[in-house]
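Two folds, back to back.
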Amino acid sequence: YAVFYPIFQEVEDRDYIDLKLWNRRAREVNSELFYRSTSQKVPRQIAWDGNLFRLLGYFAAEGSLTRSYPNSESWFSFSFSNQEEEYIKDVEHLLSTIFHLKGKRHYHNGGCQISISSKPIVRWLSSHGHQFRRGLTQLLERANPELQQSFLQGLFRGDGHINAQSVSIVSATPELAFLTRTLLLRMGIVP
């Protein structure tokens, strides 16, 4: 038997992601997008940088999307243990830096959830496929190695485990586990 792992040589480099492409019904004022049902405005263009990819790593590990009908509220959130204050603050900093949004903290049973109501961001996150984690493959496999490292940093902070003998990650989806392996191989790390 032979096992082959794709290591993509092509790198897609961008300066930004245009959120208007996924939010055609959003209103735009002074390069910010918003919907009438929410007052939270977000920048139309999001920098394609390490901050975004680290946040996507956190989201792949600890994130969720919620849409409620009939009032059509859209939320995205991150769930952490109360013990992970450093990561909670990092996610809050990233949300503020990237999207100019402030999340709301909710504490329950030893956990902390950071929730943000934003249709433009939820539409963009959900546009990467039926399950966000599956859609990450297309986004990440051709990103440059520095951005992939930023993604892995957020991912391992959320779902990784480190002890004296090993470094490991636990994933609920095989797609995310395979993607992680592929990114590590591309960096010359044999999992």
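---
second:
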Amino acid sequence: VLLAVIVLWIFASNRLVLTAVHPQLASSRGIPVRGYETLFTVSIAVVVTLAMSWVGLMVINSLLVLPAAAARNVARNLREYHLFSVVLALFAGVAGLVTSYYLGSSTGAVISLYLAVFFAVTFLFRAASGKASSGTVPFTDVPANAYYKDAVLWAVAENVTQGTGSSTFSPDKTCSRAEIVTFLYRSPLSE
């Protein structure tokens, strides 16, 4: 099963990501979206079903969610996101196994606890590192007390967008598909 997942990851990861992020774009590129969605769902179902008998339901749920959530807090691009997710899951599994042996406690609970701590640490790191920019908004149509002000500043600082004019951002304007794809392409996480 591990070999099958590795082969799937090597040969289909780009198509799976594109299918998940933008199904219409994937379809326009000739990718059979329904087939890749089914392949992904079946793969997850098989892995979860087999792993439940080995490690338990709580650990499987923790291993599905927490490494990815923790990696999302610190990754700058998709490659780092995958790498950090796998490394965190492996480290938590090994550390949890060793720790539970010496403490005489439940392995599943210790692994889940390690994963929860990793998420908490990366969440605090992200908050402390100031991913959201601060400062004066350069746009006349974005109020200084707007709830989305930090997101606008971040998008401008990361060159995701420069607004709709020299001094306008148009926060109430609906984004077109082309603009959304451009934002995703320019996003630091797409590198």
